[in-house]
Design brief:
The complex is a heterodimer.
Chain A: E1 2-3, H1 6-29, H2 33-57, H3 61-93
Helix pairs in contact in A: 1-2, 2-3
Chain B: H1 2-20, H2 24-44, H3 48-72, H4 78-92, H5 94-110, E1 117-118, H6 126-133, H7 135-156
Helix pairs in contact in B: 1-2, 2-3, 6-7
Chain lengths: 106, 163
Amino acid sequence: MINNNGGLFLIFSIFAIVLGVCGFYCIMVTRNFIRSLIGLEILTKAVTLLIIAAGYASNRIALAQSMVITLIVIEAVVISVAAGIVFGIFKQIGSLNITKLRNLKG
Amino acid sequence: MILTLILLVLLILAAVWAVMTRSLMLSAIALALTSVILSIIIFTLDSPLAAVFELSVCAGLITVVFISTMSLTKPITRTELKKQTKNRIKRYWYLPVLLVLTGLGCWLSFAKPELKFLAPAAENDVRNVMWKIRQTDILGQIVIILTGVFGVVVLFKERSKND
C-alpha cells in the first residue's frame, strides 16, 4: 500500500530544518544562559514537528504520538534541570552572561 | 493545506520573534506562542494526544519554569541594556537572511523527487502502542522524571554552613 504523503512530508521537513537553523543560531549567537535554553527548546520543537510529520506521512501516527509524548517528557525534565543549573551558576558568578563564566571552580 | 502552510509560516515567525526580541520575558512568551501554534499543527495532523501534551507541558509548564528562573535571577541594568542593544542588532540581523536562504536551498534541492512511503497496516491506537508495544519507553520516562526530581532537589538545596 502506497500513499502520496511524500510531498506533504517534504514541506514539513523544510520548515523543520528552518526551525532547527533558528534554534542553532540562537544557541551560537546569544550570550545569555536563559536565551540559550530557549534555543534548545526551539530545536526540540523542530524535532517534534519532524517526528509527527513523518508519522503522518508513513501512516504510523500512533507510534509518532507515543514518541512525541516521550520527547516532551524528556524536554520538560531537561529544561527544569538546566534552569536549576542556570540558577546555580547565577548564585556563583552573579550574572547571566556566558562570557563571565571563566572559571570551573565549584 | 493552505491553513497548514499559514500555520507553519506563523510558527517560524514566532520562533524568530523568540530569538530576536530584546526582552527575555517577551522571548518566553513568544516561545509559548510557538508551542501553541505547533500544537495546532499537530492537531491538524490527526494527533490529538500529542497536541494536548505539547500545549499543556511546553506552553504551560516550561513557560512557568522560564519565568520563575527569570524572577529568581537579577535583571540587567539599563546601561547594560543600552550597550547590549547596539551589539544585538549586529549579531542578530543575519538570522532572517539565513532562514530564507536555508528554506530556499532546501526547497530547490528537496522538492524535485516525489517521495512515496510504504505504509503497512500499522497499529493506530496510541494507547495500545504506548502501553503494549513501547513499554520500555514508559520505564525510561519514569527514570528520567525521577532523575529530574533529584537533580532539582540537589541544585536548589541550601548549603550548610560548614561548606
